[in-house]
Amino acid sequence: MRKLLFKRKISFPKQGAEKNKRTLLFLFIVSLLFFLLVRFIPFRKSDAIREDMIQASIIMEEAMVALREYQSDRGLILDEKNDPNLTGLIGVESSPL
């Protein structure tokens, strides 16, 4: 008789289980609301920054072209191993400076 009592599993509901379910449901609804807000409401602030980013990329491209021309005039060879994009911004690994 004693063996039967120990093999049988009895699951008791934990106290506050309903409270945990409500909390999880509330957090799910709040997170879903914020997700939908971020997904579907456009932000206009990025449009002003976009123009600055485009202008910065144009200036950067001009600087890289000027750097490549200077290096080719001096007879310097770009190292594809250390500078795979051939930007000319990556120099020797160590120098006396």
For the termini, the CA-CA separation is 87 Å
- Helical content stands at 55-70%
Number-wise, the strands total: 0
Instruction: Kindly provide the radius of gyration, computed on alpha-carbon positions and rounded to a whole number of angstroms.
Output: 32 Å
Sketch the topology as an H/E string, one letter per element: HHH
Structural class: mainly alpha
Determine the number of helices (DSSP H or I, runs of at least 4 residues): 3
Indicate the mean pLDDT. 80
Report the sheet with the most strands, covering strand number, pairing sense and barrel closure.
Answer: none
DSSP strand content:
under 5%
Low-confidence stretches: none
Write down the overall geometry: elongated
Describe this structure in words.
With 97 residues, the protein is mainly alpha-helical. 62% of the residues lie in helices and 0% in strands. It is built from three helices and no strands. The chain has helices spanning 2-7, 17-40, 45-74. It is elongated. The N and C termini lie far apart (87 Å). The model has no long low-confidence stretch (mean pLDDT 80).
